[in-house]
Amino acid sequence: MSNGKQRRSSLKELIILWFNQGEDIIYVGLGLLLTAIAFTLLITEVIYFAQYVSTVSLSENIVFLLDRILLIIIFAEVLYTVQVSFRQHILQPEPFLVVGLIAVTRRILVLTAEMSKLAKETQEDFNNAMIELGLLTILIIALVVCLRMLRPQGQVSDKES
Asked: Residue 127: which of 119, 138, 135 has the closest Cα?
């Protein structure tokens, strides 16, 4: 009887080991893809920046550059989340909330930059943009409250230490 239990236990441990190795392979693959994408975006941004500086059109394209830079930061944060998940084999909500904050901030910046153009077009587009801006503001408040609840006062994250 105990021999049968030992076999089942060793089979169970073997399956758990395979799942852990499969999870690690997936996380490494995701990390490599995210790194390649972020690195490609970074190189592209440097090229765009140099072009805009050389053609003296940086001020007209600053919102576009900022939007793309925030996208790179989002990729970096998701990469950090994958790294933590790979290292600790747990999924933490904090990095996702930070990514959400960056994404909402990114959208607010783009929306406010386009606001003058929307005001010149139709009143309905402008009103929709204002509603979206209000909802994004509420979303930022909710995300900050969630982050605050997850990280008690005085606690330092892994990245800060």
From this structure: 119
| pTM for the full predicted model | 0.72
Residue type, 9: S
Instruction: Enter the tokens of residue 4.
Output: 């049968």
Tokens describing residue 136: 């994004």
The answer for residues whose C-beta is within 8 angstroms of residue 107's C-beta and 6 or more apart is: 132, 136
pLDDT tens string 78-97: 998 888 888 887 878 888 89
Q: Which residue has the tokens 């077009």?
A: 121
Read off the pLDDT of residues 36-88 as tens digits, 9 standing for 90 and up. Answer: 999 999 999 999 999 999 999 888 888 889 889 999 999 998 998 888 888 88
d(CA 22, CA 12): 15
For residues 113 and 58, is the Cβ–Cβ distance under 8 A?
no
Task: State the Cα–Cα distance between residues 92 and 80, nearest whole angstrom.
Answer: 11
HSE, CB side, 13 Å, CA atoms: give it for residue 69: 12
- Number of CB atoms found within 10 A of residue 99's CB: 19
